[in-house]
Amino acid sequence: MPTRLPTLRKTPRAQAPRGEAELVVDAAHFRRIVVEGICAAKVSVDIATADFKAMLVPTGGSRRAESIVAVFRRLARAGVEIRLLHAGVPSSAALLELRRELPENLTIRRCPRLHAKTVVIDARQMYLGSANLTGAGLGAKADGRRNIEWGVWTQSAEMIEAVLDEFNALWCGAQCESCKRKDVCPVPLEEPG
Fold it and tell me: What's phi and psi for 125, nearest 5 deg?
């Protein structure tokens, strides 16, 4: 006889933000988030990711590619404000490239408790899902080598505003005072230093 799961009591809360969304699966992450999202940003890119690694992004119709850090650099020079919030230390290749030249419009902060993943483009489009900002996470790796990832892409203003509220609170250190992980992050760090 199957075991019956306990009924969870729902606590009253404000209605969650709603809106239409497109499901993004596996390799589609790279096209939707990087090529059509990050590379096309005009005003801002806000990224929350647990892991950040160097990855190559194709340039135009050629077989050439540039690193995601070079993409950030190019966007920042064009006036796009980029905020990257991550949990750990970037990969050595990404960190080396960031240390070579960190544009004024690119700000990086760390929160070791961060596990959320989102990319918000121009406060008008947003990815929210499981993928980190890595080649394996965003589907830039070949079949069988990339992660299995699911997420949603939306233009729901209400949903984007709700996520940006959470992002901004974390970005500004709203949870730092009560954090129990100060031993590994005494203050929100800006990198590379």
Answer: -135, 150
User: What is the distance between the alpha carbons of residues 133 and 52, in angstroms, rounded to a whole number?
Assistant: 5
Helix (H, G, I), strand (E, B) or coil at 119: strand
Q: What share of the chain is helix, strand, coil (3-state, %, to 5)?
A: 25, 25, 50
- pLDDT class of 18 with cuts at 50, 70, 90: low
Cα end-to-end span (Å), the chain: 60
Which domains are delineated in the chain? 21-174 (3.30.870.10)
Instruction: Give the C-alpha separation, 156 to 191, whole Å.
Output: 31
* Full-model pTM: 0.84
Question: What residues pair up with 49 in beta bridges, in sequence order?
Answer: 86
